[in-house]
Write a structure and sequence with these properties.
single chain; 379 residues; alpha/beta; Enolase-like, domain 1; TIM Barrel; 2 domains; 14 strands; 18% strand; binds magnesium ion
């Protein structure tokens, strides 16, 4: 069970006509960094690092990989501490942590394969049999009639059986308010609707939007302000009845402690391919539990990131326990991405009555289509 080899892959899909934007940038490609850890027995595990694929690859290839060779896969807490401390003075947030996430998740995949157990069971056991996926979409595109396209997209998700959807905002106060109205009218009153500004606003602007869209029954308002602006988060939270969510741009137990201690959000959104991996997620869930603050895992990326987040969502505790605990909402990005939809030969997400049922595969439940990786590999 010792590590023999560490491989990194950058894969890229050109989006062309399918390019889309959110409040911060255009997506013209889907470019990802995948990590494979292979043991002396020839068993392999996969992890993914969100973020800049080239920076993440450089960190793993040059700094982390040499430290991993010869280590035992079950020494994952020890490994995490060693890797973190190696670049602690240089990178307590960002790519250094995203790269650790890929390593940690690949180790969990391996631990599952060696024990023939699903990762959620190794994390302490599934707390639920199903989770409620929400369609993440409603990005903006090059079009003269964004509103019509958003309505069309809403109908597509309704037809697919989604009971919850998250739309991108952050395109200007008046535009946002109009688009939220349009989408709410398109989906009717019974579907959950969330909005995500990707920190495009000051607290004052975010409050203006929040108060204007309260009447559209918004399940949460995600990243209203920049992640550094804890005071701004608190102002927005205090000024609206809409729950405030954030955390996808926060890292490690240290970063989340600040969010939790300040009680600046109603919903924490740790991403297992960003903030330090499943091992770190366990610690963040424990801290959130102490503060009785809801967590819902954030997910963005390939089938590996999706599977990793899913195991976290099944294993996560309830906040709090009760006879009728709240459903766990799970992010299911619906923008074009062949690495999410076509790369996993073992398992594909399907909705049953709008829910994702607990998968039974060992490890993360990921079997790579190596031809697909080879075809899209960035050399
Ligand atoms: Mg978001």
């Amino acid at each position: 069970m010792k590590i023999k080899e560490v491989k990194t892959y950058i894969v890229s899909q050109k989006l062309g006509e399918q390019s889309f934007c959110y409040s911060q940038a255009w997506y013209n490609t889907r470019t990802l960094m995948l990590l494979e850890i292979i043991t002396e027995d020839g068993v392999y595990g996969f992890g993914e690092a969100f973020g800049n694929a080239f920076v993440n690859k450089a960190i793993i290839d040059n700094v982390y990989a040499p430290k991993l060779i010869g280590q035992h896969i079950f020494d994952s807490e020890k490994i995490w501490d060693e890797l973190y401390n190696t670049l602690r003075d240089n990178g307590q947030k960002g790519s250094c942590i995203q790269a650790i996430s890929a390593v940690d998740n690949a180790l969990w995949d391996l631990k599952g394969k060696y024990t023939h157990l699903p990762v959620y069971q190794l994390l302490g056991g599934a707390r639920r049999d199903k989770i409620l996926p929400y369609a993440t979409g409603f990005y903006h595109t090059k079009t003269d009639n964004q509103e019509a396209l958003l309505v069309e997209e809403a109908h597509k998700y309704l037809t697919a059986g989604f009971k919850a959807m998250k739309m991108k905002i952050g395109f200007g106060i008046e535009n946002d308010i109009q688009m939220v109205k349009t989408v709410r009218e398109a989906i009717g009153p019974d579907i959950k609707l969330m909005v995500d500004a990707n920190h495009a606003y000051t607290a004052m602007a975010a409050i203006k939007i929040a108060q204007a869209i309260e009447k559209y029954d918004i399940t949460w308002f995600e990243e209203p302000v920049i992640p550094e602006d804890i005071g701004g988060y608190k102002e927005v939270k205090a000024a609206t009845s809409i729950p405030i969510a954030g955390g996808e741009a926060e890292f490690t137990r240290y970063g989340f402690k600040r969010f939790i201690d300040e009680r600046c959000v109603d919903i924490l959104q740790p991403d297992c391919s960003i903030m330090g991996g499943l091992s770190e997620a366990q610690k963040i869930f424990s801290m959130a539990k102490i503060a009785n603050t809801q967590c819902y895992p954030h997910v963005w990326g390939s089938a590996i990131a999706l599977q990793t987040g899913m195991h976290a969502a099944f294993a996560m505790p309830d906040f709090p326990e009760s006879l009728n605990p709240g459903e766990v909402l799970f992010e299911y990005d619906r923008t074009p991405n062949i690495f999410r939809d076509e790369m996993n030969l073992l398992y594909q997400v399907t909705l049953k009555d709008g829910y994702i049922e607990k998968p039974e595969f060992e490890g993360l439940g990921f079997e790579p289509d190596r031809d697909l990786i080879a075809k899209h590999l960035v050399k």
